[in-house]
Amino acid sequence: MSLVNKLNEFLANQQVFYVKLHNLHxxxxxxxxxxxxxxxxxxxxxxxxxxxxxxxxxxxxxxxPVASVKKASEIATIKELCDEKISGDDSVKTLIEDVKFFxxxxxxxRSLAGEEGDGVTEDQFNNYVGAYEKLLWMLEAYLCK
Length: 145
Ligand SMILES: [Fe+2]
Prior knowledge:
The chain is built from five helices and two strands. With 145 residues, the chain is mostly helical. The chain has a single domain, classed as Ferritin (Up-down Bundle). A two-stranded parallel sheet has the order 1-2. The site of fe (ii) ion (FE2) has 2 residues, from loops. Fe (ii) ion is lined by residues 25, 41.
């Protein structure tokens, strides 16, 4: 698969993730509500920045970024949530699965970019890997793992 196609796969999933983080922000319940509600807002703001940065990298490479909800839903593989209350622990568990997915995909894109001599994309996704690994540590610490 070409680098641009992989970047669009990442972008489409990130667009769905942005919505999913809002779902968690709105529907999380329990004693950790205030902590998680605020954390999910921080994460959807970060996700919005990632969406824009990845789309603009695709454009810089001469590609066409996914720019519709319909197309993003067709490509994305991360699971969306129902519109119903979710506990703090369950919300962090589903988040861990998604962050692992983005971390693995970021590593794949980093390698692909490296093979193609595209140091800029390689650096961009190397930064994402660092950020996702840090976030995974924090989410797992939240679950006392
Ligand atoms: Fe809000």
